[in-house]
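User: Please fill in residues for this 665-position structure.
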């Protein structure tokens, strides 16, 4: 088991030292006294991978303040130890988005005292697991570059990022000397072959992330870094890694499996990336899906059974630690050249649904990971349980996609209240104030427990985080009536097109994330599902003439194309996140200094939430008594009277744990 030993990696005392110098284009960690190469040899290298952990370190749902059977790094750690033990040769990598996504991450970034000397708990846990290489994801930039550098200062593993550059040295003819982090790492190892001999193997890694970070986190990255195209970066970099001596090259691709045809600055670029010569295997991510498996349909470039993209072995290990990704690469050495002879890709789950459809853990949590995250866990619980106000009615998100959602209206009304206070005495005073927000927890890939459910009474910090899960900043944009209609058309892509009078048609497009289903408070409108969607689930124009939004009104009057409005929203949306008309980064007129969650906190502490003005904002256009199938949490049954106008029929529980209703439109 020589290959499995933990070898010391230089600790980065100052993140600035990670910027490459002319004589430091790779990170290499050789073993002493490598054996002389044989003429031929065969061995198996096991690649273990996590991605999109989103600081789910333990089996605990901080938003709901309760233990969870789903995922977590502590359970992944147990699997890692098992899979390492059953392999002669293994490497463990992470594919990014490990610092943000759970309330413990927000606590560390915003609330933990600055003089606290403790390591970031995610880094501490990853150190304990002896990760070999880690790549950055887009959410690593959510708390700012200074925070990111400080967190990585304690990492005892190489952190790489290939397409994030320092603009201060933006000489585009060279890709190897001015990256924010080292652009690649080459790990030198002794690999145990099938015949018991050992051979040297140099494994090269590079890491890429979506260039849209320049939009999504503009306030943090503008002027600090420059993020370039994923595929063009790799085309230049892979030959360099080979030239530096890598026997095989593995891509850490924090990008989803999307379009097969390359276009510049793709967000989901895994397929064009896989087609680049010289890449032997890939770890994909970002979209929170799984591969291999049924999440991706077969095509000439995608084999969801064999686990290949363009013939290249690939895995996408879900999110939150719900699965561990594994690729076993059978390597054949002929002379001085290693090549991949065959491979086996698989995903190993940490939990499964029982006979009653409840999620049950398949494995125990690792005690070492629990121990090294215990202090931060306890501090987070103390923080999230702090009382901040009260509400006088139950608030939940079980029917957010049906037009009945007090949870979104708490956010929109808090934003409207804040915007009105900001524009007093300014040139914008007098313009109609609207407020846009989306439901964040509506099941989806997060499963049937991924809903907000607050009872009337006291509210805590954790409850507010449950209502607003992202660390976005407040923004206000200036838009026209035409842009408003386009904004809502983009949101209306959440629904499938249905046939009037048709029976049992699926209501929701499973590829559309609920955080892009913006509701705009201050308007009333209807959505006609018999019409096609103007946009794809990812925001690309597909039917320019399509019109689902009808009867769009403000204060009872139809919205004119040239009418002007101020819309309260967040930094992600206002900066172009989601590709919404009217919110493309150039319409921002006010940049608040508070997070959206802090604005919600101010609203609740003022007592305004106790008299929440819940009213209908939108509804569906009647569709000739068509019936649709709608999946939600089993807990929604307790609130079924709220959707009585749909004549709901309970169809029962699904194997996925969701409950299915038939609704009449």
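Assistant: Residues filled in for all 665 positions:
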């Amino acid at each position: 088991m020589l290959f499995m030993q933990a070898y010391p990696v230089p600790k980065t005392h100052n993140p600035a030292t990670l910027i490459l110098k002319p004589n430091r284009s790779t990170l290499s960690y050789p073993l002493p006294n490598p054996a002389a190469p044989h003429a031929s040899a065969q061995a198996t290298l096991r690649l273990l991978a996590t991605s999109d952990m989103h600081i789910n370190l333990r089996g605990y749902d901080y938003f709901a303040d309760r233990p969870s059977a789903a995922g977590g790094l502590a359970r992944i750690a147990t699997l890692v130890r098992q899979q390492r033990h059953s392999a002669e040769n293994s490497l463990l990598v992470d594919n990014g988005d490990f610092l943000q996504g759970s309330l413990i991450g927000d606590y560390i970034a915003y609330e933990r005292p600055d003089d606290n000397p403790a390591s970031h708990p995610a880094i501490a846990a990853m150190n304990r697991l002896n990760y070999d290489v880690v790549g950055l994801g887009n959410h690593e930039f959510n708390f700012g570059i200074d925070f990111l550098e400080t967190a990585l200062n304690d990492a005892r593993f190489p952190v790489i990022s290939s397409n994030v550059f320092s603009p201060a040295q933006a000489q585009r003819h060279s890709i190897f000397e001015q990256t924010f982090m080292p652009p690649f790492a080459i790990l030198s190892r002794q690999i145990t072959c099938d015949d018991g001999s050992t051979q040297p193997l140099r494994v090269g890694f590079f890491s890429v992330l979506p260039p849209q970070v320049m939009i999504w986190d503009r306030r943090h990255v503008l002027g600090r870094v420059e993020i370039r195209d994923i595929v063009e970066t790799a085309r230049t970099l892979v030959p360099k890694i080979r030239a530096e001596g890598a026997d095989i090259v593995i891509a850490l691709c924090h990008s989803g499996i999307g379009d097969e045809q390359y276009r510049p600055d793709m967000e989901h670029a895994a397929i064009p990336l896989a087609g680049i010569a010289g890449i032997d295997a890939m770890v994909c991510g970002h979209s929170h899906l799984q591969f291999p498996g049924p999440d991706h349909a077969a095509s000439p470039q995608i084999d969801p059974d064999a686990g290949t993209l363009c013939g290249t072995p690939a895995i996408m290990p879900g999110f939150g630690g719900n699965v561990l990704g594994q690729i076993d690469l059978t390597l054949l050495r002929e002379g001085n050249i290693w090549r991949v002879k065959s491979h086996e890709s698989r995903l190993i789950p940490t939990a499964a649904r029982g006979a009653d459809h409840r999620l049950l853990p398949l494995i125990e949590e690792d005690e070492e990971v629990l121990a090294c995250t215990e202090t931060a866990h306890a501090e987070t619980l103390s923080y999230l349980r702090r009382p901040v106000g009260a509400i006088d009615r139950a608030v939940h998100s079980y029917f957010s996609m049906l037009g009945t959602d007090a949870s979104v209206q708490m956010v929109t009304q808090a934003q409207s209240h804040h915007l009105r206070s900001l524009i007093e005495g300014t040139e914008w005073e007098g313009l109609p104030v609207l407020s846009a927000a989306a439901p964040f927890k509506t099941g989806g890939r997060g499963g049937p427990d991924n809903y907000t459910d607050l009872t009337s009474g006291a509210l805590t910090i954790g409850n507010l985080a449950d209502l607003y899960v992202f660390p976005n900043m407040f923004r206000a944009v200036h838009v026209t009536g035409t842009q408003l209609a386009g904004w809502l058309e983009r949101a209306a892509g959440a629904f499938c097109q249905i046939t009037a009078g048709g029976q049992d048609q699926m209501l929701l497009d499973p590829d559309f994330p609920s955080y892009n289903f913006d509701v705009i408070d201050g308007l009333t409108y209807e959505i006609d599902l018999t019409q096609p969607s103007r946009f794809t689930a990812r925001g690309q124009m597909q039917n320019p003439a399509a019109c689902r939004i009808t009867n769009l009104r403000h204060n009872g009057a139809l919205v004119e194309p040239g009418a002007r409005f101020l819309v309260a929203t967040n930094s992600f949306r206002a900066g172009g996140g989601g590709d919404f008309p009217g919110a493309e980064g150039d319409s921002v007129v006010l940049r608040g200094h508070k997070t959206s969650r802090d604005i919600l906190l101010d609203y609740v502490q003022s007592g305004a939430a106790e008299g929440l003005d819940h009213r209908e904002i939108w509804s569906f256009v009647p569709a000739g008594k068509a019936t649709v199938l709608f999946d939600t949490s089993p807990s929604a049954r307790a609130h079924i009277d709220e959707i009585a106008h749909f004549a709901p029929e309970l169809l029962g529980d699904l194997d996925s744990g969701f409950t299915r209703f038939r609704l009449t439109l």
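For context: The chain has 14 helices and 38 strands.
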